[in-house]
Amino acid sequence: MATANPTQQESTAPPRPSAERVREILIVDDHPLMCDALALTLKISFGLKNVRTARSLAAAQEQIRSQGVPDAVILDLNLPDARGAEGLVTLRRQIPNVPITMISADLENAMISAAMAAGAQGYISKSLGREALVDSLRRMWDGERVTPDSYEPEHAGEEDAARAELARRFASLTPQQMKILRLICQGRANKEISYELSIAEATVKTHITAIMSKINARRRTQAVLLANSVRLFEPA
Protein backbone atom coordinates (compact mmCIF):
# COMPACT_ATOMS: atom_id res chain seq x y z
CA MET A 1 0.00 0.00 0.00
CA ALA A 2 1.34 3.39 -0.96
CA THR A 3 1.92 5.86 1.86
CA ALA A 4 1.28 9.57 1.69
CA ASN A 5 4.27 11.80 1.29
CA PRO A 6 4.71 13.76 4.54
CA THR A 7 5.85 16.79 2.55
CA GLN A 8 2.67 16.68 0.46
CA GLN A 9 0.56 16.34 3.61
CA GLU A 10 2.18 19.40 5.13
CA SER A 11 1.76 21.46 1.96
CA THR A 12 -1.99 20.75 1.73
CA ALA A 13 -2.72 21.27 5.43
CA PRO A 14 -4.22 24.67 6.37
CA PRO A 15 -1.63 27.10 7.72
CA ARG A 16 -1.35 27.30 11.49
CA PRO A 17 -2.35 30.64 13.05
CA SER A 18 0.69 32.85 13.45
CA ALA A 19 1.23 36.50 14.23
CA GLU A 20 3.99 36.45 11.62
CA ARG A 21 1.39 35.83 8.91
CA VAL A 22 -0.65 38.88 9.90
CA ARG A 23 0.45 41.58 7.49
CA GLU A 24 -2.76 43.49 6.80
CA ILE A 25 -5.15 44.68 9.52
CA LEU A 26 -8.59 46.25 9.39
CA ILE A 27 -9.53 48.44 12.37
CA VAL A 28 -13.26 49.20 12.69
CA ASP A 29 -13.80 52.07 15.13
CA ASP A 30 -15.77 55.30 14.78
CA HIS A 31 -13.48 57.30 17.10
CA PRO A 32 -10.83 58.96 14.85
CA LEU A 33 -8.19 59.47 17.56
CA MET A 34 -8.53 55.91 18.87
CA CYS A 35 -8.41 54.54 15.35
CA ASP A 36 -5.33 56.54 14.35
CA ALA A 37 -3.47 55.79 17.60
CA LEU A 38 -4.16 52.07 17.28
CA ALA A 39 -3.10 52.04 13.63
CA LEU A 40 0.18 53.79 14.47
CA THR A 41 0.86 51.38 17.35
CA LEU A 42 0.31 48.36 15.10
CA LYS A 43 2.51 49.73 12.34
CA ILE A 44 5.39 50.36 14.74
CA SER A 45 5.03 47.23 16.89
CA PHE A 46 4.42 44.71 14.12
CA GLY A 47 6.18 46.44 11.24
CA LEU A 48 2.97 46.62 9.24
CA LYS A 49 2.76 48.71 6.10
CA ASN A 50 -0.96 48.37 5.50
CA VAL A 51 -3.37 49.11 8.35
CA ARG A 52 -6.84 49.84 6.98
CA THR A 53 -9.55 51.63 8.94
CA ALA A 54 -13.34 51.90 8.75
CA ARG A 55 -15.70 54.06 10.80
CA SER A 56 -18.77 51.81 10.66
CA LEU A 57 -19.83 48.21 10.14
CA ALA A 58 -21.25 49.00 6.69
CA ALA A 59 -18.00 50.72 5.68
CA ALA A 60 -15.99 47.72 6.89
CA GLN A 61 -18.14 45.30 4.89
CA GLU A 62 -17.84 47.39 1.74
CA GLN A 63 -14.09 47.75 2.20
CA ILE A 64 -13.69 43.99 2.54
CA ARG A 65 -15.65 43.50 -0.67
CA SER A 66 -13.69 46.13 -2.59
CA GLN A 67 -10.18 45.78 -1.13
CA GLY A 68 -10.10 42.14 -0.11
CA VAL A 69 -10.05 40.14 3.11
CA PRO A 70 -7.58 41.35 5.77
CA ASP A 71 -5.45 38.98 7.85
CA ALA A 72 -7.07 40.17 11.09
CA VAL A 73 -9.76 42.57 12.29
CA ILE A 74 -9.98 44.74 15.41
CA LEU A 75 -13.62 45.62 15.96
CA ASP A 76 -15.09 48.23 18.30
CA LEU A 77 -18.04 46.90 20.30
CA ASN A 78 -20.23 49.94 19.68
CA LEU A 79 -20.43 51.45 16.20
CA PRO A 80 -22.88 53.95 14.70
CA ASP A 81 -24.70 51.14 12.88
CA ALA A 82 -24.10 48.17 15.20
CA ARG A 83 -23.96 47.88 18.97
CA GLY A 84 -23.23 44.74 20.93
CA ALA A 85 -22.44 41.43 19.25
CA GLU A 86 -24.19 42.36 16.00
CA GLY A 87 -21.03 43.68 14.32
CA LEU A 88 -19.10 40.55 15.23
CA VAL A 89 -21.86 38.19 14.09
CA THR A 90 -22.20 40.08 10.80
CA LEU A 91 -18.46 40.13 10.02
CA ARG A 92 -18.04 36.51 11.09
CA ARG A 93 -20.53 35.60 8.36
CA GLN A 94 -18.54 37.56 5.76
CA ILE A 95 -15.04 36.51 6.86
CA PRO A 96 -15.43 33.23 8.79
CA ASN A 97 -11.72 32.36 8.93
CA VAL A 98 -10.28 35.74 9.96
CA PRO A 99 -9.47 36.35 13.65
CA ILE A 100 -11.65 39.16 15.00
CA THR A 101 -10.65 40.98 18.19
CA MET A 102 -13.33 42.91 20.05
CA ILE A 103 -12.13 46.10 21.71
CA SER A 104 -14.22 48.08 24.19
CA ALA A 105 -14.34 49.97 27.45
CA ASP A 106 -17.23 47.67 28.45
CA LEU A 107 -15.71 44.81 30.45
CA GLU A 108 -18.97 43.36 31.72
CA ASN A 109 -18.77 39.57 32.04
CA ALA A 110 -21.99 38.97 30.09
CA MET A 111 -20.82 41.04 27.14
CA ILE A 112 -17.44 39.32 26.99
CA SER A 113 -19.11 35.90 27.20
CA ALA A 114 -21.48 36.82 24.38
CA ALA A 115 -18.63 38.06 22.17
CA MET A 116 -16.51 34.97 22.75
CA ALA A 117 -19.47 32.68 22.08
CA ALA A 118 -20.17 34.59 18.86
CA GLY A 119 -16.69 33.76 17.59
CA ALA A 120 -14.35 36.50 18.77
CA GLN A 121 -10.71 35.44 18.96
CA GLY A 122 -10.36 37.73 21.94
CA TYR A 123 -11.72 40.70 23.84
CA ILE A 124 -9.51 43.53 25.03
CA SER A 125 -9.96 46.75 26.95
CA LYS A 126 -9.48 50.14 25.32
CA SER A 127 -7.55 51.17 28.41
CA LEU A 128 -4.72 48.65 27.86
CA GLY A 129 -1.20 50.06 27.69
CA ARG A 130 0.80 49.62 24.51
CA GLU A 131 2.86 46.64 25.67
CA ALA A 132 -0.16 44.76 27.02
CA LEU A 133 -2.14 45.52 23.87
CA VAL A 134 0.61 44.28 21.57
CA ASP A 135 1.13 41.15 23.68
CA SER A 136 -2.61 40.36 23.66
CA LEU A 137 -2.87 40.77 19.89
CA ARG A 138 0.23 38.68 19.26
CA ARG A 139 -1.19 35.86 21.39
CA MET A 140 -4.54 36.03 19.58
CA TRP A 141 -2.92 35.98 16.16
CA ASP A 142 -0.93 32.94 17.31
CA GLY A 143 -4.27 31.20 17.90
CA GLU A 144 -4.90 31.84 21.60
CA ARG A 145 -8.28 33.05 22.83
CA VAL A 146 -7.58 36.08 25.03
CA THR A 147 -9.85 37.84 27.52
CA PRO A 148 -9.26 40.46 30.25
CA ASP A 149 -7.71 39.21 33.49
CA SER A 150 -10.85 40.29 35.37
CA TYR A 151 -13.13 38.18 33.21
CA GLU A 152 -14.93 35.28 34.87
CA PRO A 153 -16.89 33.09 32.43
CA GLU A 154 -20.56 32.97 33.37
CA HIS A 155 -21.27 29.52 32.06
CA ALA A 156 -19.38 26.40 31.15
CA GLY A 157 -19.75 23.28 29.08
CA GLU A 158 -23.14 22.76 27.47
CA GLU A 159 -24.37 26.31 28.12
CA ASP A 160 -21.36 27.82 26.37
CA ALA A 161 -21.90 25.45 23.44
CA ALA A 162 -25.59 26.40 23.27
CA ARG A 163 -24.76 30.10 23.23
CA ALA A 164 -22.19 29.59 20.47
CA GLU A 165 -24.71 27.60 18.42
CA LEU A 166 -27.28 30.37 18.85
CA ALA A 167 -24.74 32.95 17.66
CA ARG A 168 -24.15 30.81 14.56
CA ARG A 169 -27.89 30.81 13.88
CA PHE A 170 -28.00 34.60 14.09
CA ALA A 171 -25.05 34.72 11.71
CA SER A 172 -27.20 32.94 9.11
CA LEU A 173 -29.59 35.91 8.92
CA THR A 174 -29.35 38.14 5.85
CA PRO A 175 -28.57 41.84 6.37
CA GLN A 176 -32.24 42.71 5.82
CA GLN A 177 -33.37 40.07 8.30
CA MET A 178 -30.89 41.42 10.85
CA LYS A 179 -32.36 44.91 10.43
CA ILE A 180 -35.87 43.55 10.93
CA LEU A 181 -34.85 41.59 14.01
CA ARG A 182 -33.24 44.72 15.46
CA LEU A 183 -36.52 46.60 14.99
CA ILE A 184 -38.49 43.72 16.52
CA CYS A 185 -36.22 43.93 19.56
CA GLN A 186 -37.05 47.66 19.72
CA GLY A 187 -40.74 46.76 19.97
CA ARG A 188 -41.73 47.87 16.47
CA ALA A 189 -44.89 46.47 14.89
CA ASN A 190 -44.88 45.04 11.37
CA LYS A 191 -46.44 48.21 9.95
CA GLU A 192 -43.72 50.34 11.58
CA ILE A 193 -40.99 48.04 10.25
CA SER A 194 -42.54 48.25 6.78
CA TYR A 195 -42.44 52.05 6.91
CA GLU A 196 -38.93 52.18 8.41
CA LEU A 197 -37.40 49.94 5.73
CA SER A 198 -39.64 51.05 2.84
CA ILE A 199 -40.82 47.53 2.08
CA ALA A 200 -44.28 45.96 1.90
CA GLU A 201 -45.80 44.65 5.11
CA ALA A 202 -46.22 41.25 3.44
CA THR A 203 -42.46 41.23 2.79
CA VAL A 204 -41.83 42.00 6.47
CA LYS A 205 -43.98 39.02 7.45
CA THR A 206 -42.09 36.76 5.03
CA HIS A 207 -38.77 37.87 6.52
CA ILE A 208 -40.04 37.34 10.07
CA THR A 209 -41.11 33.79 9.20
CA ALA A 210 -37.61 33.12 7.85
CA ILE A 211 -36.00 34.68 10.94
CA MET A 212 -38.07 32.53 13.29
CA SER A 213 -37.15 29.41 11.34
CA LYS A 214 -33.42 30.19 11.32
CA ILE A 215 -33.15 30.95 15.05
CA ASN A 216 -35.72 28.30 16.05
CA ALA A 217 -38.14 30.70 17.74
CA ARG A 218 -41.92 30.37 17.81
CA ARG A 219 -42.92 33.87 18.88
CA ARG A 220 -41.55 37.39 18.60
CA THR A 221 -41.02 37.55 22.36
CA GLN A 222 -38.90 34.40 22.21
CA ALA A 223 -36.86 35.88 19.35
CA VAL A 224 -36.20 38.97 21.49
CA LEU A 225 -35.15 36.84 24.46
CA LEU A 226 -32.77 34.83 22.29
CA ALA A 227 -31.22 38.00 20.83
CA ASN A 228 -30.81 39.43 24.31
CA SER A 229 -29.20 36.22 25.58
CA VAL A 230 -26.25 36.72 23.18
CA ARG A 231 -26.25 40.51 23.56
CA LEU A 232 -26.88 40.88 19.85
CA PHE A 233 -28.18 44.44 20.08
CA GLU A 234 -27.21 46.91 22.80
CA PRO A 235 -29.24 50.07 23.52
CA ALA A 236 -27.77 53.29 22.17
UniProtKB/TrEMBL annotation:
Annotated source species: Paracoccus mangrovi
Alphabetic keyword roster: DNA-binding, Phosphoprotein
SMART domains cross-referenced by the UniProt entry: HTH_LUXR (SM00421), REC (SM00448)
Gene3D superfamilies from the UniProt entry: 3.40.50.2300
InterPro entries: CheY-like_superfamily, EvgA-like, NreC/VraR/RcsB-like_REC, Sig_transdc_resp-reg_C-effctor, Sig_transdc_resp-reg_receiver, Tscrpt_reg_LuxR_C
PANTHER family for this protein: HTH-TYPE TRANSCRIPTIONAL REGULATOR YHJB-RELATED
Domain annotation Response regulatory: ranges: 24-141
Protein name, per record: Response regulator
